[in-house]
Amino acid sequence: NGNFVIAIDGFSSCGKSTVAKALAKKLNFVFVDSGAMYRAVTLYFQRNNVSLSDDIAIQTAIENIHIDLVPLVDKTQVLLNGEDVSDAIRTMEVSEYVSEVSAIKAVRHAMVKQQQALGAKRNIVMDGRDIGTTVFPNADLKVFMTASPQVRAERRFAELTAKGEVITMEEVKENLSHRDHIDSTREESPLRQADDAVVLDNSELNQEEQLAFVVDLVNKRM
Ligand code: C5P
After folding, report:
1. d(CA 147, CA 102)
2. What is the complex's ipTM, to 2 decimals?
3. Domain ranges within the chain, ordered by starting residue
4. Residue identifier of the C-alpha nearest atom 11 of ligand 1
């Protein structure tokens, strides 16, 4: 129906959102960080002690959660029931629990619905784990990003320590493999490469090279 949808999926810390953001800016598309939505849900669950074995509590929580992604000049603000939680959702505490919360069917159904609504009429770039397989199986372009485990851990470590988080490289590696494992083995929309996705391994590419690679793919399909 006229709009162009770009899905960018991959394991944790492969640089998906950096590429997605740059691409959206370049094309003047809307950028949607689907992981931020799962992180906001996780923060709500943690703050309200929602038990992952209590289906009714989960359902009630989902009904009480309203997430807005507000595009600002150089970042997207994440609002959880009107509160700016952009920084609060990036802590290790949230990262350690987000994959458990994201594996819950009811949570995924609610988020996927919102994500589909966001991309129904607009030109968008959305990054996540199941965008090309589940959220937009008919996306105009699907990119699956990978990078070596060492590169991923180093990037993540640099990101967290820059924010003042006290953490070891070992803890970062553990968290990445923990999330990758849960994300790719869960029953509901597990992380996997869509058959028609183009692989982008960015272990040895700088940001300009990655952007050029995806822009070229877009140009071929527009
Ligand atoms: O992208 P990010 O690493 O911030 O995502 C955090 C977590 O949210 C992932 O590890 C995964 O468990 C979950 N997620 C998901 N589906 C998506 C995006 C993120 O399950 N589309």
Report:
1. 23
2. 0.99
3. 5-221
4. 99
What's the CA gap between 16 and 127, in Å, rounded? Answer: 6
How much is the pTM?
Answer: 0.96
Buried b (16+ CB within 10 A) or exposed e, 22-49: bbbeebebbbbbbbbbbbbbbbbbbeee
- 17 in a labelled binding site: yes
For residue 103, the CA-to-ligand 1 centroid distance in Å is 10
Q: Quick check: CB of 175 below 6 Å from ligand 1?
A: no
Indicate the fold that domain 5-221 takes in CATH.
Rossmann fold (3.40.50)
At 106-155, the pLDDT tens digits run 999 999 999 999 999 999 999 999 999 999 999 999 999 999 999 999 99
Residue 138: burial class (beta carbons within 10 Å; 0-12, 13-18, 19+): exposed
What are the C-alpha distances in Å from 58 to residues 43, 98, 128, 196, 221?
13, 14, 22, 34, 41
* Pick from 190, 216, 214, 184: nearest CA to 200: 214
Q: Which atom of ligand 1 is nearest to the CA of 95?
A: 6
